[in-house]
Amino acid sequence: xxxxxxxxxxxxxxxxxxxxxxxxxxxxxxxxxxxxxxxxxxxxxxxxxxxxxxxxxxxxxxxxxxxxxxxxxxxxxxxxxxxxxxxxxxxxxxxxxxxxxxxxxxxxxxxxxxxxxxxxxxxxxxxxxxxxxxxxxxxxxxxxxxxxxxxxxxxxxxxxxxxxxxxxxxxxxxxxxxxxxxxxxxxxxxxxxxxxxxxxxxxxxxxxxxxxxxxxxxxxxxxxxxxxxxxxxxxxxxxxxxxxxxxxxxxxxxxxxxxxxxxxxxxxxxxxxxxxxxxxxxxxxxxxxxxxxxxxxxxxxxxxxxxxxxxxxxxxxxxxxxxxxxxxxxxxxxxxxxxxxxxxxxxxxxxxxxxxxxxxxxxxxxxxxxxxxxxxxxxxxxxxxxxxxxxxxxxxxxxxxxxxxxxxxxxxxxxxxxxxxxxxxxxxxxxxxxxxxxxxxxxxxxxxxxxxxxxxxxxxxxxxxxxxxxxxxxxx
Length: 476
Fold this sequence. Notes:
Elements: H1 8-21, H2 32-42, H3 44-57, H4 59-64, E1 70-82, E2 88-92, E3 95-98, E4 102-118, H5 120-187, H6 193-228, E5 234-238, H7 252-262, H8 264-284, E6 290-302, E7 311-322, H9 330-397, H10 402-436, H11 442-449, E8 452-459, H12 464-474
Antiparallel strand pairs: 1-4, 2-3, 4-6, 5-8, 6-7
Helix pairs in contact: 1-5, 2-5, 3-5, 5-6, 5-8, 5-10, 6-12, 7-9, 8-9, 9-10
């Protein structure tokens, strides 16, 4: 793609505008990659997704704990005071004395190790948890891909707003000069007052559009703060040397097949379905028995009277089986609930597959159309330049009126902005296409960043509002 050849007037006015803006410009502008790296650290959406993913990872050790040994220990200590009122004991020789008080301490401990031997429900809960973590992993990766798209779109919106600002500013200056020339012609009686009024109306509308473009540029700069947590004053432009090429491969079905296999939203939905199916098996397993084995060790010391002695040590080996017979319909109800949720996940997966197929086809065609559109826009600029020259010549010799000239100027400036806009649409749609097929990664952003031009920065401006009012009032 050949670089755009802008009109001499546009280049002159745009250069003058940028020179005035650069007088207060900082020494360095930020690149696309730098903005992205800052967004990775500060974007709240990605931060929340990372914390959510970290929390979901704990589901696996929680579910696995039901299959591992359970160790428990307990201890106790008790002080006992026994009184035997009205009780006597024969000490021999006919002497009878009251039974003495018995004050003593009991203490001991018990430890148990219990190991599940058969628990189908816990096993399927464990496999469901692993699938759930896989779902969360794919969802987090999708959020990371989406951050790339969000950063690029926010960045391109700034560049797009700057191109529109420069186009409207150049058009404003050109229309102003035209208005001054018409006024001079009217003053000497060469044209009618209608030409002056028509030129004034076009100029006023152009001022309004330039004021709006100035505000929009500032707004889009501010939108980057939402992603990065910091304000930007300058950004690198995208060089016109960026190649505008068709998707590779150029087979739409190949892109769709890749998307159905690699799209992260589809993979997340597949993992969600697997988790739901394992949960269904776990709920159905609630009808099955569970088997545990255990070893219990206990030690007990009593200070009271005990014919077995004051110390007791005991080791118990046990196996237990629990057979659920009836739980009020709880197990069946939970199984029906899990079956319905599994069906819901299956439908959600189907929805994702249909949406991804549609989006991939649409984006593939959009990128292919963008390639053709960029070339057509470049040709349109050249045609508009030729048309403007012809109309201006016709106006000089009296075969065209001022309206024709103003319309030809508007067409040229609009064509120049449309060319830039079509390039930005191409970049955005191409990244969206790669995200749709699941292959978008930071390397793609680095490739795009290689075409940013630090020597031609976009500077944040919001000082033209007052100037626009003054320039408009001068014509009244």
